[in-house]
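User: Class D sortase. Structure?
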Amino acid sequence: MKKYLTTLLAACCMLAAFSMPASALEYHFDGPDAGLFGRPTSDDTIYVTMDKPANTDRSKNAAYIPPAFGSPTSYTLNAGELLTPNLVSGSATGTVSGTGGVTVLPPSASSSTAGGNTGSYTPVKYTAVTKDLYYSGGYLGTLKIPTLGLSVKVYQGTDADALRKGAGHFAGTSIWEGNVAIAGHNRGVNNHFGKIHTLDIGDTIKLTTQLGTRSYEVYSVSKIGVDDTSVLNDSTENIITLVTCVKNQPDYRWCVQAREK
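Assistant: Predicted structure:
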């Protein structure tokens, strides 16, 4: 009898345990951290991709024709020739001037016609170096400065090889019409340009090429920064530009410019 009662009591306890309401067992699941899932498809974040203002003119009016590959200005920011120079913002008679007074791409005044205003501009002058312009000795011309007693042959390029033989023509600049730019050493055995900074306004420079002989009159003798390439810009008039180093001043260059007489 005692064994029966013990068994019955155990069964009652088990039954009471199984009949306990489910609400007594509490479970809690933490939700995911905010932002891990379900990002909104509409994003109001403003991403800045450039430091230029949004209203910068990026039309053809502000476009440039890049300089020739390998030319002195090929890696200069905003260098080159304007694609549509007559559409440049500003006055119709404005000019863009470089060091030494070289005028580049100046739009001329607009002329009025019965049908409206017609804009025009003065084109730059430029003569490219072609194989038929070389002399049999491999040079492009002869530069003479009577005041200095200088007569030197001009070779293409401004590398060590060209300057060892004579003066060097800046590749990318004109060889006849427009701005003819030439470099030379200012010391050593081939110090052809060692005294160009002593030239006076009005002195004569002569250049002879396969296209003829041209005389220029000096109008500017100046010291420019080593990174100033504006003196190599194309010109609307016939000029010649001579460049050399400044003794013991590596950050500067002597620059002489002369225009056709």
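Confidence is low (pLDDT under 50) at residues 88-118. The chain has two domains: 60-121, 131-260.
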